[in-house]
Specification:
The complex is a heterodimer of chains A (about 240) and B (about 210). By secondary structure, chain A is an alpha+beta fold. Chain A is built from six helices and eight strands, in the order ααββαββββαββαα. The longest helix of chain A has about 45 residues. With about 210 residues, chain B is mostly helical. Chain B is about 65% helix and about 0% strand. In chain B, strands 1-2 form a two-stranded antiparallel ribbon. The chains are: A alpha+beta (about 240), B mainly alpha (about 210).
């Protein structure tokens, strides 16, 4: 039997079969691989939190080092009071940032390294092409940045994507999020200014202005929510904190 | 054997997909800001192009002409998505680099172009080699363009700083225009100019 490859019936059947096979194939692959992918994603999250305090690890040792350095984690609300019943690791920041600050669940991770305590706050925001996120680690004065990590979904390679590179993170070391009068100012990401000597500014990425501005907005929006928590913590450890 | 070898060597120069066939320009502009993403892209395109070519070649006698473009697109898209999913599960770090490019690979006209022009009318082995050759030709141009764009636009090569600090202190500045797509286009234009000047048989071709 000679099949007429150009006939309408054949074309119709061919297209239908192809679509069904591809859909089945891709769905099956996705379902099979999802657990592995999720595991990788969680490991990567731990890697990022550790990287914000300067502990760079492979994905396999992420869990061990995470348990070693991250000594506590909890969730607070906008007033700075602890919220029970949910683990900081499980909070989905992309959902929280859509809410009003007063309704948000704010995760906090406490790390201890070389005898020092650090507070790690996750941040989430919008880049140019998609979401950007990261972790900001503050020293125990809850003002000076000890380290940061940032990541993105689809920023332009070589431009906005540079926010995921270490050289960009290094800029944030030693910057402060409160000014001398104790007001929250966050950290601005700017072009051309003298950023080396300004404790509240870092250099934007050449050619990656939109991503840089998105990052600046993300820092301000997310860290602002923690101000009440920070003030309450400072009051608790007032004697240790020197401005 | 000579004919098969030519499939790989011709696209490197005299039938280069970017400078002679004028395909794949958009991705060449987007990913050549620095060298590393350019190389990742070139390798990804090589994988997708070679295997898409083989698949379409194997199916070539079964595809109805009217829907051949759709079938090609489905093959390319499925391949790229499958690769992305596998990388996310087994080679997570590489997938982070590739995920950004997924859209760019699917719409890369070199892939559609070669499927139409070659795979549909040739056997799997020649199709495979044609895919490798064209992707290699694409890769060479990407590496050349990204080398200059990174060097002049960022002062680095493969992420390593090359322009000495003393030059910056003396007033040298990175050429910011190099980071933007128009300079990539001009760089490609200059390469085409040099190539046609050297290989006169290419002149007169549109």
């Amino acid at each position: 039997m000679k099949i007429n490859v150009q006939s309408n019936l054949y074309t119709f059947i061919y297209a239908s079969v192809m679509v069904i096979l591809v859909a089945l194939g891709l769905s099956w692959t996705y379902l099979k691989l999802k657990p592995l992918q999720e595991e990788n994603r969680l490991k990567e999250k731990k890697q990022a939190i550790l990287a914000s305090i300067g502990v760079y690890t492979t994905r396999d040792s992420a869990q061990i080092l995470f348990d070693k350095y991250i000594v506590d984690n909890f969730v607070v609300d906008a007033n700075g009071d602890k919220v029970d019943g949910i683990s900081a690791f499980d909070v989905e920041l992309e959902k929280e940032v859509k809410k009003d600050i007063k309704d948000r669940l704010l995760p906090v991770f406490i790390a201890k390294k070389d005898g020092q305590t650090f507070y790690i706050f996750p941040v989430y925001g919008k880049g140019l092409w998609g979401p950007i996120w990261g972790y900001v680690a503050l020293e125990d004065d809850l003002n000076t940045v000890y380290g940061v990590t940032f990541d993105h979904k689809g920023e332009t390679p070589g431009l906005g994507a540079e926010i995921a590179e270490r050289w960009f993170w290094e800029q944030f070391k030693g910057k402060k999020i409160f000014d001398e009068n104790g007001n929250f100012v966050s950290i601005a990401v700017v072009k051309g200014a003298d950023t080396k000597n300004d404790p509240h500014k870092v250099d934007a990425i050449s050619g990656g202005t939109m991503t840089s501005k998105g990052l600046e907005a993300m820092l301000f929006d997310c860290l602002q929510a923690y101000v009440n928590f920070i003030n309450k913590e400072k009051a608790k450890t007032g004697e240790r904190w020197a401005s | 054997m000579g004919k098969l070898t030519k499939l790989v060597t011709e696209p490197l120069n005299l039938n280069n997909p970017i400078t002679v066939q004028i395909l794949g320009i958009c991705s060449a502009l987007a990913v050549t800001v620095k060298m590393k993403p350019a190389v990742v892209m070139a390798l990804s395109v090589m994988f997708v192009l070679a295997f898409a070519n083989v698949i379409i070649s194997l199916l070539r006698n079964t595809i109805p002409t009217r829907i051949r473009i759709i079938v090609q697109l489905v093959v390319i898209a499925s391949l790229v998505i499958l690769v992305d999913q596998f990388l996310k599960a087994y080679l997570y770090d590489i997938s982070k680099q590739l995920s950004v490019f997924v859209g760019l690979i699917i719409t890369n006209c070199i892939i559609m172009g070669r499927l139409e022009a070659f795979a549909l009318g040739n056997k799997p082995l020649p199709a495979f080699l044609d895919g490798i050759g064209n992707a290699a030709g694409y890769g060479i141009i990407l590496i050349i363009v990204s080398f200059f764009r990174e060097l002049l636009g960022s002062g680095t090569v493969w992420g390593i700083q090359v322009i000495p600090d003393s030059w910056y202190a003396a007033g040298y500045q990175n050429n910011g225009l190099m980071i933007l797509p128009p300079m990539a286009l001009i760089t490609i234009g200059i390469i085409i100019w040099i190539q046609r000047g050297k290989y006169k048989e290419l002149q007169g071709r549109s």
